[in-house]
Structure formats: C-alpha cells, structure tokens
Amino acid sequence: MSYQKITVIDFGGQYNQLIARRVRECGVYCEVVPYRKITVDGLKKEPPAGIIFTGGPNSVYLETSPHIDPEIFEIGVPVLGICYGAQLMAYTLGGRVSTAPTSEYGKTETFYDKKCVLFGDEMPDSAVSWMSHTDYISEVPEGFEAVAHTAVSPVAAMQNVRRKLYATQFHPEVNHTEFGLKMLDSFLKNVCGCTGDWTMESYAETAIREIRERVGGGKVLLALSGGVDSSVLAALLAKAVGSRLTAIFVDHGFMRKNEGDEVEAAFRGWDINFVRVNAAARFLNKLEGISDPETKRKRIGEEFINVFEDEAKKIGRVDFLAQGTIYPDIIESGAGDAAVIKSHHNVGGLPEHVDFKEIIEPLRMLFKDEVRALGTTLGLPENIVWRPPFPGPGLAIRIIGEITVEKLEILRDADAIFREELEKSGVARGINQYFAVLTNMRSVGVMGDFRTYDYTVALRAVTTTDFMTADFAKIPYDVLERAAARIVGEVRGINRVVYDVTTKPPATIEWE
Ligand code: XMP
C-alpha cells in the first residue's frame, strides 16, 4: 500500500524534526523537504494530502530569507504555516508582517476562536501556547480572518477556510502548547482528509515487500552492533530475505555484562546466517598502552572495520550491504546549503574492502521511536528494543586510561549492579542514560582490619531529551546508598563510589 503523505517544507526552523514526528504520531506519513528543493510542478505531479511550512530563523523582509512560489497556494492542497511559515503565508498573499512591539518568547496565554476547525469545541477559550518570534502578522491577507490572539499578537492564528489555508504564529508541535497535538491532528484529519493509515504493521508489510523486490535472489550483508537500529534492521531483513542475510556481530569485548550473549540469543533462532565474532583479544591488543580517548575511538573504529572485512571476505561477493541509517541522520536543514547526507555508523566508517554492489537503508525514513515500534512489531525482545543509548566504543570509553581485562571485569560488575538497583527501584524509568565509569584513581580505604588501596568508581545518570544538554538525575539517596554498598561489597578492586553531579554542559555525558 502507499500512504497518504504530508510534505513538511523546511525553512530552517529548530523544530522541523519535531513537526514531522508529531505528524507521524497522528498516524500520518510525512517527509521533510528543504524549501529550496520544492517546486510547484513537483507538487502538482504528486500532490501530497497537505503541506506544512516550518518556522525559520529569519524575517520575511530580509532579501536572503527563504521565500516560496505564491503558486503553491493555488494548487488546492491545504497548507498550515507555523511561525515563520505563518508569516511567509501572510506576506506572500498580501498581508502585513511587522516587528512586534515586544517579542513573545515561551509560554504565552492565547485566546482561541473555537469556530476554527484547528481548535474545536472541546478547547477552552484560552490556553497556553509556545511562542518564539520578534515579527508578527499585523494584518491578515484578503480572504483571511484572525482566529486566535494574544496580548501582543492580534493574529496568533489565521484561516482561509475556502482555500484551506491555515497558519499559527505559535508552535503547535511543541509540548508546551496545550492542545497542540490536537490542533495538528485536526488539520491532518479534518482539513487534509488524512485517515491515519501510517501504522507500523503496514509499514513493516510494505518495507518487507519493497526489500524483496529490490534484493531479488541476491545476498545481503549487515554489520550488527547489537544497538537498536542494527538489530531492528536485522529483524526486518530476516523477515524479508531470510537465509540470504548474513549478519555479522562483531563483539569487541567492550559490551556490558551479558550483552553479547543477549544479542546472540535474540538472533540465534532466526532463519539467517548469524555470525558472532569474538574479537575481544584483537581489540585489546590494538588498545594496549593507549589512554587518549580520541585514539581509543579511532582504533576501535578501524579495528571494527578490519574484523568485519575479514569475516565478509569469507562469504565472498554479496549484492547488498545493509546500513542502519535512520531519518534524523538524513534530514537536511532547509537553511543549510550543503546537500550532505550523513551515513550512520555505530562504530566506524564504511568498509572499503567488502565486495558489494549496492547499499540498502530500509530504516532511512524512520525516527528512533518508530524504529523501536517496528522492532516490537517484528517480535524483537524488549531488552533489545528498549536498549538505552550505548556508545559504539562501549566500555572502552568508560575506563579512564589504559584498558585491561581486569579493569573491564571490574567495570562490568559495578555497572551491572548500578543498573540493577536503578531498575529494581523503578527510578530508571525517568532516567535517559545511566552507567558506571571506572576512574583511573586509587585511594585508601579500610575493609575489616585491613588497609585497601583500590579504584574509585563513578556513577553517572542523566536526564535529557536530545543528549546535547543534560541534567544529572536526582536519584534518591537510599538507592544510591544501596548501589554503592553493593558495589564495594561485591566487586573486588573498588573501595570508593562517587556520584557525578555535573550537568552537560560544561561536562559531557560520557567521561571520555
Ligand atoms: P557525550 O558524552 O558527548 O554523549 O555527552 C552524548 C551521547 O552520545 C553517546 N556517545 C557516543 N556514541 N560513539 C557513539 O556511538 C561514540 O564515540 C560516542 N560518544 C558518546 C553518549 O553515550 C551519549 O548518549
């Protein structure tokens, strides 16, 4: 089946991906396209069910600002303009956009006209919306009417029902806008006529069919890291091509306790060629004497490729190399000039010495939460689907200084205890990433009647939405206390536990 589609035209706004995710939460498929790549002819040829203009950082009056062919409003496809997109619609259609007497930023009380289909009867007369603008629409274009206002903005939203054109100065996609998701949903369902046909079950069916058509009788090779993306990809390919898939799981020996076995257990039962390469010795060898974090990363990345290539050579020529690229990796900002498409690699770059004809990236249109939903649909176990982010180089960048077998064992045990205590107490659910770090520092302690001189373990737990900024998690003292007592009691080589209470910035989430 093919889905009804919304085209999100990106004018360089900071929330472009968020808009797309919200649209998909409403069960509607959408694609983000930079405004430079949009042509009216293209839209006419394959008209989407609706168009959404994102915000953008500029003023419509700047010559360098993004503009749009006015004919886009004539093709009969509904349009919703958001923030800059709203101003652009007003400006292009002959309304007036001016500098607001005061900028509105953040939560703003907004008064709604409930006859507008975006708002509807269930909404209160006023509610909080999220604003972020210095210009505003001071006069609506001909044929439009204002349908929301704030103390500052006479036109916080406007509509032209006949032409199916709508605009909001505020950001309905941001959580702080009360009823924002309902507004988007109403635009999609009541204005664009979308039925909500984007479900993971139907996506899985379509993706499996498309992979089969493309791959034919060919062979597919996949580097399986055990992370969410490559695991879901393996499951999808397994359903699509079965034993013509070879998944090479390079176990670099820096995974958490039992993790390598969990990955193996998750894939052993599938009808694919699953190859686990226990390469811990090779990696340790490569890292001998190395304590600089960037050198560690580089060497692990290189060795990952080496091991993968060595295994791939045993298989010989394959037709397709599968990559776990996901949508956030390929969305370009509408403001950017460069058409760079990033490839997603958990550990290193692309192998140079693997003989393949083409790359396939079946997850390239999915967001992370959709990848997880797909994994569940395909029957992957929860511990894989809900695996928290784990850096490609693994525990190697959580051991400060040189890596040894002994240090790896200490860290694995301490980390497992910390995670177990957080999970058991229910605290883990509100935390986005949590782990232990083995510092390179030893200090004096006393155990029984003996003096000890052992390592200090640091515990790190953060809350974050984007991993660009993070706060340390306010873990209850009793949970920290239990974890610390168990770690010093059960793990030989540790006599001190500290909790990292720095935010990012200035610290980072990982210690290396
Ligand atoms: P930082 O430490 O930069 O981490 O605050 C932000 C997020 O990125 C993860 N991270 C990595 N992921 N390879 C990866 O695949 C790496 O080398 C790497 N370093 C950090 C980190 O775990 C956190 O989620």
What does this protein look like?
The chain is built from 14 helices and 18 strands. Helix 5 (200-215) packs across helix 6 (228-241), helix 5 (200-215) packs across helix 11 and helix 13 packs antiparallel against helix 14 (477-490). A hairpin with a 7-residue loop joins strand 16 (450-463) and strand 17 (471-472). The protein is globular. It is α/β, with parallel strands linked by helices. It folds into 3 domains: 5-191, Rossmann fold, CATH 3.40.50.880; 200-385, 3-Layer(aba) Sandwich (Rossmann fold), CATH 3.40.50; 399-499, GMP Synthetase, Chain A, domain 3 (2-Layer Sandwich). The two termini are 46 Å apart. Strands 2-1-3-4-9-8-7-5-6 form a 9-stranded mixed beta sheet, sandwiched between helices. Strands 12-11-10-13-14 form a 5-stranded parallel beta sheet, with helices on both faces. Bound molecules: xanthosine-5'-monophosphate. Xanthosine-5'-monophosphate (XMP) is lined by residues 297, 346, 389, 391-393, 433, 467, 504, 508-510.
Instruction: Record the strand order, biggest sheet.
Output: 2-1-3-4-9-8-7-5-6
**Number of domains in the coordinates?**
3
Count of DSSP-assigned helices: 14
Largest sheet: 9 strands, mixed
Give the strand tally: 18
CATH topology of the largest domain: the name is Rossmann fold
The CATH class designation of the largest domain is Alpha Beta
CATH architecture of the largest domain: 3-Layer(aba) Sandwich
Ligand catalogue: xanthosine-5'-monophosphate
**Main structural class:** alpha/beta
Low-confidence stretches: 336-348
CATH superfamily of the largest domain: Class I glutamine amidotransferase (GATase) domain
What Rg is obtained from the alpha carbons, in whole angstroms?
26 Å
Question: Portion of residues in helices?
Answer: 25-40%
Distance between the termini: 46 Å
The coarse overall form would be: globular
Estimate the mean pLDDT confidence. 92
Q: Per DSSP, what share of the residues sits in E-state strands of 2 or more residues?
A: 15-25%
